[in-house]
Specification:
alpha/beta, Rossmann fold, 4 domains, 7-stranded mixed beta sheet, 12 helices, flat, binds S-adenosylmethionine
Length: about 525
């Protein structure tokens, strides 16, 4: 049973100590941090634990207890050796000796505590002081924020891909998901949130005494030992134990059973270099040798009983993620042989659009990003006359016209900006243009989707026929009833009439009546 709730599932309204939070510096630059009230790693800052960034330093004490999304100003932290305590000194003793008066007070560094080898100045006990510039935003841990900030051990699956994949493999609360390989755990976190429907032990707590809630789970596999260990540790730190179970295994060799038991998977995601080697293990019954491709470790040995890792009562949805088309071809070939249907390949390409107004004209001054070409003939003429006037004055009078640079008003000063916003309404000026941003982080791979239907035995067929009576479609157009009366459907009637007409035209009188088109019919 998990001992704590995961901040990925319940982040609460504010940041808190000993919980993961994401320090957002700018788009695509985020730092994951477990907030600490005290510097347990003894990094030596007088302010306690500190996050140092290119936008300034942020003592953890200034980040704890803030509503998610808060903007936090950098603090003045001496990150040089003089601002540091000596590593390994008895912190407890120091704290006892100089208990801060408020949450923003930092402990005092006494003269005699300083290392004689470091040029140290005495630090007065002081509050954490805001720096003049630099800020960050504090964000809650979500799979999306984790994907953009996690320590990369491998190439990862990014949000645009995994949101689509999870939707296509029908991952939802209560789903059993198989994932291999786990790599850096980007997909693992997203799939854990998708499958979560309660912590182990809470199955019966949905108000129903008779029907137990089905708890979703991610059955993750990774064969690289260090990656497996690191992800295992992250899953513990993030409170996802019991929702994610990671097994250290080569799935192409050992398959997907865990402790000999079937995960009963309904959704599968394979991010492996050779997914076709793992596919024979993902069958409902022992696969035939001919369907297993080149893998000698396929489960074709019939001396041991075959246990399927799949849920026998539902169709199973799979996605494989491969960067090369040759991998896709081999995967699809094996999928077909193993009975997967509805096979489809998709490539996602995400684009971000930048939309803005394009304004042209010298009158725009030096505003950033604007084109300083004349907007009209009048503007061009006025500018030419100005330049020529200066030129003429110089040659006729020898006067050097003083540069009026100094007199120029900064076009970005507050008054100018207000004037352009309120009076000129510059936001309405210009042509509305859009362009795609050149690069968006997604790992382009081919996604292969397929479905494995539930097995359909002769017994299932018999039971189904018993339960739902099947009315066979009558192919014959003409039925002869007990009394010898001929009944026809509309099509047969038309056909008979046409034939009768033909026969009449040929001088042959139709049998059974004067009118060759008269045929006894019944509407069907
Ligand atoms: C591209 S990474 C997966 C990244 C992961 N999907 C993520 O979002 O972070 C591929 C991983 O598969 C693992 N792997 C490769 N072959 C494997 C196998 N046969 N069994 C288990 N893991 C395997 C590799 O060690 C690697 O960590």
């Amino acid at each position: 049973m998990a001992s704590k709730t995961s901040p990925f599932l319940f982040s609460g309204p504010v940041s808190s100590a000993d919980k993961l939070s994401i320090v957002h510096l700018k788009r695509d630059l985020q730092i994951p941090t477990i907030l600490k009230e005290h510097d347990e790693d003894d990094e030596g800052y007088t302010e306690g634990k500190v996050v140092n960034t290119r936008f300034g330093s942020f003592p953890h004490t200034t980040l704890i207890g803030l509503p998610w999304g808060s903007q936090v100003r950098a603090s003045k932290v001496d990150t040089g050796s003089r601002g540091r305590r000596v590593k390994g000194q008895d912190k407890k003793r120091k704290r006892e000796e100089s208990v801060p008066e408020g949450p923003n007070k930092t402990p005092k560094l006494e003269d005699d505590e300083a290392d004689a080898s470091t040029p140290t100045t005495t630090k007065e006990e002081s509050e954490v002081v805001a720096a003049s510039s630099g800020f960050i935003h504090l964000l809650p841990p979500t799979p999306e924020n984790w994907t953009s900030s996690l320590p990369h051990r491998t190439q990862v699956v990014y949000t645009p891909d995994y949101s689509y994949i999870l939707h296509r493999i029908r991952a939802r609360p209560g789903t059993q998901i198989i994932e291999a390989g786990a790599g850096s755990g980007s997909f693992t976190h997203a799939s854990a949130r998708a499958a979560f429907s309660g912590y182990p032990g809470s199955e019966g707590t949905n108000g129903s005494a008779t029907k137990k809630r089905k708890l979703g789970k991610v059955w993750s596999f990774e064969f690289h030992e260090q990656r497996h260990e690191k992800l295992q540790k992250e899953i513990q730190d993030h409170g996802l134990e019991g929702i994610v179970q990671i097994t250290h295994r080569d799935v192409c060799e050992g398959g997907f059973l865990v402790d000999g038991q079937s995960p009963g998977a309904e959704s599968i995601f394979l991010d492996l270099p050779a997914p076709w080697l793992a596919l024979p293990h993902l069958s409902r019954s022992r696969p035939p040798k001919s369907a297993c491709g080149s893998n000698p470790a396929s489960p074709t040995d019939d001396t041991t009983p075959f246990i399927s890792p799949l849920n026998p009562t539902t169709p199973v949805h799979i996605c494989t993620f491969s960067p090369c088309i040759e991998q896709v071809q081999r995967t699809i070939s094996v999928l077909r042989k193993l009975g997967w249907v509805d096979i489809q390949m998709v490539e996602l390409s995400q684009k971000r659009f930048e939309i803005r107004r394009e304004r042209i004209g010298i009158a725009n001054g030096t505003e950033r990003g604007l084109q300083l070409t004349p907007a009209s003939v009048d503007e061009a003429l006025a500018r030419l006359m100005e330049v020529e006037g200066t030129f003429k004055a110089f040659h006729e009078n020898g006067e050097k016209v003083e540069s009026n640079k100094k007199d120029k008003v900064n076009p970005n000063n507050r008054e100018k900006i207000m004037e352009s916003l309120v009076e000129r309404k510059v936001y309405k000026e210009g042509r509305l243009v859009h362009r795609t941003e050149p690069e968006v982080k997604t790992h382009t791979s081919y996604l292969v989707f397929a479905i494995l239907p539930i097995e359909w035995s002769e017994e299932d067929e018999r039971k189904a026929r018993e339960k739902w009576e099947v009315e066979m479609r009558v192919e014959d157009e003409v039925k002869v009833e007990d009394g010898g009366e001929v009944k026809m459907n509309k099509k047969a009637r038309k056909k008979a009439a046409a034939e009768a007409r033909k026969a009449a035209a040929a001088g042959v009188k139709a049998e059974g009546g004067d009118d060759p088109t008269e045929v006894k019919v019944e509407e069907t």
